[in-house]
Design goal:
Shape: globular
Structural class: alpha+beta
Helix content: 25-40%
Order of helices and strands: EHEHEEHHH
Number of strands: 4
Distance between the termini: 49 Å
Strand order of the largest sheet: 2-1-3-4
Largest sheet: 4 strands, mixed
Number of domains: 1
Strand content: 5-15%
């Protein structure tokens, strides 16, 4: 059987994101590829827009399916021994609440209300 690799697209200029990626790199079992969105070319490999990649976490499965937002985070962590801890975030009821929280956090991050750099090094 061929190995099945998922690709996680992340903001390499965001200190918080970089910290989580370092942890995922250490813990993952070898089937998760990491792609810094700032190193991707617009229009390459049918990627979503640069803005879309910055607004929400994106993961492309080994079958080419896009998983976005909270489900992308859960899927990324499923490549580690701790993935089971994230699965409840997808349960009905919990998912609706957790998705709303994730969405609000991601919007604030994108608007630079957090310490993440987006595109350049200006501060909010």
């Amino acid at each position: 059987m061929e190995p099945r690799y998922d690709t996680l697209f992340y903001d390499g200029q965001c200190p918080l994101c970089a910290k989580e990626i370092r942890t995922l790199r250490k813990l993952q079992r070898g089937n998760l590829i990491f792609a810094d969105i700032h190193e991707q070319r617009d229009g390459s490999a049918n990627l979503p827009s640069h803005e879309a990649l910055l607004r929400r976490l994106h993961l492309m499965t080994w079958t080419g399916e896009w998983v976005i937002g909270l489900p992308a985070n859960v899927r990324a962590w499923s490549h580690t021994p701790f993935g089971f801890l994230f699965k409840p975030l997808l349960w009905p009821g919990i998912f609706q609440i957790a998705s709303r929280i994730y969405g609000k956090w991601a919007d604030k991050r994108y608007e630079r209300k957090y310490a993440c750099a987006i595109g350049d090094n200006e501060t909010a």
